[in-house]
Amino acid sequence: MANLDHFTDSTTNKQVVTDSLNAAFSLYPNFDQYGYNDDAMWWAQAAYYAYRAYGDTNLLNHAISCWQHISNYVISAADASSGTQPNKNFTIQGSCGDTMVGGVFWRPTIDDASANSIATGLYVTLSAFLADATGNSSYTDAAKLSASWIQTTNMNSDYLALDTVSEQDCTRSPSTWLFTYNSGKFIEGLSVLSGLTGDSNWSNLMLNMVSASTRTTAWQGSNGVITEGADTTENNDGVGFKSVLIRGLDEVWVRNSGNGALRTLIQSYTDVQLNALLDLASTNSSGTAWYSPAWAGPAPTSLIPWGQLAASDVLVSAVNVN
Description:
This protein is mainly α and 322 residues long. The chain has helices at 2-8, 14-27, 37-54, 57-70, 77-82, 117-134, 137-153, 180-197, 200-213, 237-255, 260-280, 305-321; strands at residues 95-96, 98-99, 114-116, 164-166, 282-285, 288-291. The chain has a two-stranded antiparallel ribbon with strand order 1-2.
């Protein structure tokens, strides 16, 4: 809703967005109800999007407070060197083939050892957005450090982000665990970071990841329609993963106005998902559109709430890129 207002230069949704975010941030310590650092940063980035749309510095401060909290769970060079982390009760590995510096723990609990791409990608993106908003180089430095971890330690040779590495024993999630949101959120962060720094390392990595993400068979069919998270009977995290990729690609489109080929690719890819939604995965019921989480179809026979949510980023991004 905030992004739609931002793209259309509107304040139509300002009240409901602002009230909802302020309510959420007032309810739970560190903006996290269930004990997951990525959950906290989803809220923080929603607050940033709303700040960007409406200029409300209170919302920006919510995002900054969350960043300060999550920074306690980023593996520093000192942590890697000493083998200890102040908020964990086990010996950490400073290197798992490549350095673990910059990785972000998935959970704040003292015994959880997982560092993963979604928590780290969210931290990269939040840091880059805050650097862009404030001009504070500390945020830029944080974004670069964590972006380096994904690039060197948790990415495959096809430029797709991998999932999880254990900080305790270096065990990894299966290499087949390739999810849209891991690459999509990191792409979003790289689009901001590359512009902030002017560093071709980040812009080239972003371009390679955009190319890989829009062509891989890991989550889409030969027609280009994303097939991940297509459960029509039960909501699950995977249903919403794909919308994160679309949102990340949209940020690349916005920030690369001089690259016509890149923008055409992103517009075309977004429109493929939009046309699939409209032609294969939607039903008009008394003037209300129902969207299936299965974007390749079939069309739903009843309202599926998680299908509506997954469709929202496609609909909003399509407004922007077209």
